[in-house]
């Protein structure tokens, strides 16, 4: 079972790498926040895969709280960025 | 927006959320959930307005199902068109921010409309002001507000109008 | 391994492919707004599919997975909109390919 999950895990890792590249190069702060938002959502898939691989549903609670916190984080970051580049 | 059923709706949604969170339908889960949902309803009935305005009618329930089906189809289409664009070496995008108009007045219906636009092919809500929505469109066919409204807003609006007052 | 679990792995793989499209979109798209578009749509569908796939593998977890999916369907477009709005208010420019910006034209009267 766990072996077959390696395929989706590997593809999701590619997605993480591409989003992380955008996080590193920016160029603007808002681009980094967009990339960060993408990274956290892809990480939820990672948590679900961990839950399946370990057979422990506690990872799903972690995923839910993680989704909630990253949503709040993005909203706060956006509020801050609205100040602008003038 | 006075809604006599608002407390009932808040209570049922809070209880449902509690049951989903627990993932179990047992007596003690239900009892605790009912107490907590009751307390939330009692304390927050005045300020939790996000459920008010949803119609409790058969027509509204049918519209909700139709909306869900249409939304999921559009989400799939959005992803396939996006996949084509990002795989294309030439990256064919022709973006514009266009103005569209909505008749919807209910704040929840407007929020759902904005979210739906964001998840459907090539469009992203950037700003809402009164009846106007400013939409970023990756394949902008037009910048005429009326044509863009018919293209982007009209289908979702038909469902949402039946769902919300 | 039963048929449902095999289907689940396939659905999860399809979801991961959409996540990869999201990553590719974030990597390739020319400006902030088009990157937000690519990011939000593909991560939403991709995550929904991986959650559905996980529910097929582990039906007992279905309810909690459904809850995560509903939560994401609601918050993911919302955070994208808030980011796009912040970018536009902060004056982040769109790509040179852009045809029009009705919001910039109306910005004065909106303020």
From TrEMBL, chain A:
Protein's name in the database: Membrane bound protein complex subunit mbxB
One GO location term (cellular component): plasma membrane
Subcellular location: Cell membrane
Family classification: Belongs to the CPA3 antiporters (TC 2.A.63) subunit F family.
Transmembrane as UniProt keyword: yes
InterPro entries: MrpF/PhaF-like
An annotated Gene Ontology molecular function: sodium:proton antiporter activity
Signal peptide residues on this chain, from the entry's feature table: none
Coiled-coil segments on the chain, per record: none
Alphabetically ordered keywords of this record: Cell membrane, Membrane, Transmembrane, Transmembrane helix, Transport
Keyword rRNA processing among UniProt keywords: no
Name of one Pfam family that matches: MrpF_PhaF
Annotated source species: Tropicimonas sediminicola
Topology in the lipid bilayer: Multi-pass membrane protein
Regions that span the bilayer: 33-52, 59-81
Recorded superkingdom: Bacteria
From TrEMBL, chain B:
Molecular function GO labels: monoatomic cation transmembrane transporter activity
Main location: membrane
Domain of life: Bacteria
Residues passing through the membrane, by range: 7-25, 31-52
Pfam family name, one: MNHE
Keywords for this protein: Cell membrane, Membrane, Transmembrane, Transmembrane helix
Record localization: Cell membrane
Membrane topology term: Multi-pass membrane protein
InterPro entries listed in its UniProt record: Cation_antiport_E
Signal peptide: none
One GO term describing the cellular component: plasma membrane
Family named by the database record: Belongs to the CPA3 antiporters (TC 2.A.63) subunit E family.
Name this protein carries in UniProt: Multicomponent Na+:H+ antiporter subunit E
Lineage, highest ranks first: Bacteria, Pseudomonadati, Pseudomonadota, Alphaproteobacteria, Rhodobacterales
TrEMBL record, chain C:
TM spans (from-to): 6-27, 39-59
Keyword Signal annotated: no
Protein name: Multicomponent Na+:H+ antiporter subunit G
Keywords: Membrane, Transmembrane, Transmembrane helix
GO MF entries: sodium:proton antiporter activity
Basic and acidic residues composition bias: residue spans: 96-111
Annotated spans, Disordered: 91-111
Protein species of origin: Tropicimonas sediminicola
Lineage: Bacteria, Pseudomonadati, Pseudomonadota, Alphaproteobacteria, Rhodobacterales
Highest taxon, organism lineage: Bacteria
Keyword Transmembrane (UniProt): yes
């Amino acid at each position: 079972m766990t072996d077959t999950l390696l395929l989706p895990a590997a593809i999701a890792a590619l997605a993480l790498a591409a989003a992380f590249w955008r996080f590193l190069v920016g160029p603007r702060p808002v681009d980094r926040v967009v990339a960060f938002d993408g990274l956290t959502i892809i990480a939820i898939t990672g948590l679900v895969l961990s839950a399946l691989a370990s057979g422990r549903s506690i990872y799903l609670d972690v995923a839910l709280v993680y989704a909630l916190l990253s949503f709040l984080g993005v909203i706060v970051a956006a509020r801050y960025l609205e100040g602008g580049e003038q | 927006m006075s809604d006599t059923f608002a407390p009932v709706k808040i209570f049922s949604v809070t209880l449902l959320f509690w049951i989903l969170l627990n993932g179990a339908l047992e007596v003690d889960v239900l009892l605790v959930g009912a107490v907590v949902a009751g307390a939330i309803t009692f304390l927050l009935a005045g300020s939790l307005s996000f459920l008010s305005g949803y119609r409790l009618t058969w027509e509204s329930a049918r519209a909700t199902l139709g909306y869900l089906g249409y939304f999921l189809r559009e989400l799939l289409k959005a992803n396939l068109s996006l996949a084509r664009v990002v795989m294309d070496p030439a990256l064919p995008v022709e973006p514009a921010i266009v103005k569209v108009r909505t008749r919807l007045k209910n704040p929840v219906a407007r929020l759902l409309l904005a979210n739906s636009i964001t998840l459907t092919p090539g469009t992203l809500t950037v700003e809402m002001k009164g009846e106007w929505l400013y939409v970023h469109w990756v394949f902008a066919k037009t910048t005429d507000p009326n044509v863009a409204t018919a293209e982007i807003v009209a289908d979702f609006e038909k469902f949402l109008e039946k769902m919300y007052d | 391994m039963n048929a449902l679990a095999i289907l689940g792995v396939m659905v999860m793989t399809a979801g991961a492919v959409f996540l990869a499209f999201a990553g590719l979109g974030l990597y390739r798209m020319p400006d902030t707004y088009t990157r937000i578009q690519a990011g939000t749509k593909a991560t939403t569908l991709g995550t929904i599919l991986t959650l559905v796939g996980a529910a097929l593998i582990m039906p007992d977890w279905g309810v909690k997975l459904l809850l995560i999916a509903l939560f994401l369907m609601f918050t993911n477009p919302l955070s994208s909109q808030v980011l796009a709005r912040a970018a536009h208010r902060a004056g982040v420019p769109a790509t040179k390919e852009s045809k029009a910006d009705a919001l910039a034209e109306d910005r004065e009267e909106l303020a």
